[in-house]
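debug: dumping io for the single-chain case to check the tokenizer round-trip. Nothing else runs in this session.
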Amino acid sequence: MAQINPMPINPHSTNQPSVGQSPSGLFRMSAWEGEFERANTQLPRWYWNRDQRRRRYARWVEAEAETLAMRLSGLLRPGAPADTAGAARVLVESLARDIDWARRLEDSDRDNDARDAHDGPFAHAA
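debug: decoded output
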């Protein structure tokens, strides 16, 4: 089975996966936005706020990756061919990294919101 090294995620770093897609590349923000826009004739107010939209995208990545990982893990049985089981495990590990990345992305947005709220409306004036 391939060795996969976990990668620390900093959503603001240019050397790591962009905020626009998960580390696996399976979940892209543009795909989520397109799906969301097609499903909603009237877009909610939060959609126009970049930080809130990114936070909801992170929640979507987390939920989708968790669902896929659980379904795939549930299909793994002792009698499964080794090459199939190995590939499935690699994908589950990749989905786990996507879940961690989404949680960190959401947490970093919350930290930024808290810092902005603490600074107050006049913190950047002067």
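debug: round-trip ok. Residues 15 and 51 are 21 Å apart (CA to CA).
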